[in-house]
Amino acid sequence: MRLEGWHIVIIVVLAILLFGAPKLPGLARSVGQSPRIFKSEVRQLKDEDPPAPAAAATTHREGTYGSNEAAKEP
C-alpha cells in the first residue's frame, strides 16, 4: 500500500480536526524530538556497558550441572 498525496491531505485534515491548529506545532516538535532522545539514550547505554569478555561468559565448572553445590560454595 503506497501513501499518495491525497492520503497525506486527509491525515493532515484529520489531525487539525482532532488536535486543533494551535496544538499542532507542539505536537510536531515532540514527535521530532522523540527519535533524537531515543537515539541518545541508546548511545549512552552502549557507552556505559562495555561488552563482557567472551572467556568470562563461557566459564564451565566440572560436576556442577544439575546440582546446587555451586551455589553453596563461596
Tell me the β content: under 5%
User: Which overall shape is indicated by the principal axes computed on the Cα atoms?
Assistant: elongated
What structural class do the secondary elements suggest? mainly alpha
* Largest beta-sheet characterization: none
In whole angstroms, the N-to-C terminal distance is 61 Å
What percent of residues adopt helix (DSSP H or I)?
55-70%
Low-pLDDT parts are: none
Count all strands and give the number: 0
Instruction: Output the radius of gyration.
Output: 26 Å
Mean pLDDT over the full residue set: 77
Detailed description of the structure:
This protein is mostly helical. It has a domain at 22-47. The protein has helices spanning 5-19, 24-48, 54-57, 69-72.
Which features would summarize this protein structure in a list?
65% helix; single chain; mainly alpha
Summarize the structure.
This protein has a domain at 22-47.
Give the SSE map.
Layout: H1 5-19, H2 24-48, H3 54-57, H4 69-72
